[in-house]
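Why do we care about 3D structure at all? Because function follows from shape, and shape follows, mostly, from sequence. That is the central idea of this module. The next example makes it concrete: a single protein chain, its amino acid sequence, and then its structure expressed as tokens.
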Amino acid sequence: MACSGRIFALGAAAVLLCACHALLSLGSGNGGSSTDHTASVDAQVTIDGDIGGSADAKVTTDTNGSLGDGAHDVRADAPVDQAVPLDAMAEGIQTLDQTPDQPQTPDQTPTPDQTPTPDQPLPPDLGPDSAVPTGTLTHVWSFSKGNSWAESVEGMAADSAGNTYITGYYWDTDDFGGGPLVSAGEADVYVVSYSASGTHRYSNHYVAAKSDTGTDVAMDGQGNVYVVGYFEGAASFGGATLTSNGNADAFIASYTSAGVHRWSKHYGGTSDDYGLAVAVDASGNVFLGGAFRGTADFGDGPVSSIKKNDDDGFIVALTSTGGHRFSRTFGGTNLDEVTAMTSDAAGNLYLTGAFYGDASFDAGTTTLNSAGQEDIFLASYSATGAHRFSKRFGGSGAEVGYTLAIGTGGQLYLAGKTESSVDFGGGVLTSAGQGDVVLASFTTAGAHCYSKRFGGGQHDVGIALAADAFGNIYLTGSFQGSVDFGGGPLTSKGSTDIFVASYSSTLAHRFSKAFGSTDVDHGTGLAVVGLDLYLAGDFANPMSLGGAQLSLVDGRLVRHVRGPLRALRSGRVCQSRARIPFASRVSACSISSASRKA
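And the structure:
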């Protein structure tokens, strides 16, 4: 019996819809390159092989499917950018070996990275890498929504039924499928849901006196939806009116799966405070993360950033009904911000982002120092808020962690970008151009497992990750020029194109695919339900995701929305032509159930 996985995509000034069977050919070819990297309508190629996982494996972080906001087939003991031949893997004769991790510098971790603690073993082998690549990328439907101004999809989640939930901002008047929504004058928050077949379920918008933006969304096991972001002035997110304490305040709001308001809260002081990330643990506890400046109260009394005019990071832990549990702040004398969070089955929280200069994540006990400009940080706290570990990764340029995901075997995946060089513990990865995609995996104790980078001579960034129940991960983002994600070079059609790539638990390449127009396009979110993969993004000129061409509504210029570094650095909020949010659904694999590892 065959099964199929699918991809859904949504983006920034309109959203896309269609249904067909345009598939990606994944033949290994010579020299490890893919036979075909372009969609061909009404053609299907299925590659037999092992999915690289157990049929009865479970995703530990989210009962509704793993969410993600992140690779080049480099062996852990090989020189940077040395590719593992795909034809060798396909014949079952190539195995990725891992050498002991490089020791971390003292300011990166309190214990040596290369030795996992006894209760945190390396993740189990979910199947030989020789069995991947497998699967196909099969377009099922796609659509676009938008207006003559601009919209952005900043976060996406999915429930166990395949219903998707997206949030972001829009300007002017927009229709996501349920009728026109009119903003209050500047950017407003929207929360929209579609069924697994792409049918509109509901669309709600929430207006503020000034600008407000939704930045992330997550689901709990009961189907409740949690949306975070920031707003200025007075705003209602479905309940009582909230008023920011100064400029922007962070907010978190919860809704039922049908979009009915449950509760909403805000946090902030007299300066700018941003909600940028949300995560839910297995017990239904919810976490809000972001950046604040000056003095703010996150539920445990007023706290101040280390330096008045620079951002520090924060997290707030709440019950599923909005009750306060604890809060933590961290940072140094320069900029620090949380951009992504996730949790494991034990309730441990993981966060990433960027910091510049010095920063402490354990109340000053240990100080991390960036190597140059911004460095990536990876930090973890227990379910009760106790600091577990914190590490930094970076070189002389700017490095940012944009996304995290937890895999089936407990692996922690991180993706983002490097503008110089970075060593996650497996050797130095050096950018080939102005910025490269980086992807790394760790144990839940923070020990390095595998790490890779992908890039060409221009700007490339990994923005969103997701993991399935079979040990595979999926990564999207944007790239320019020609980039090899492990299956042969992909070349952008215009300024910036979307990429979607999949890897095994050991980061062996499974497939990679590019979508784009002649202008600026980004992949901004992923979610997985079973083998169904949903992709979110935006585009600036007519393009296809494998089905009917999606059209731009208008080409007029829009002014940028003031926002946090997460949006600015990823290029999702910038002065450009109006960008169109898109949505598509694509089959990510087609395998025989007998081919899965028992």
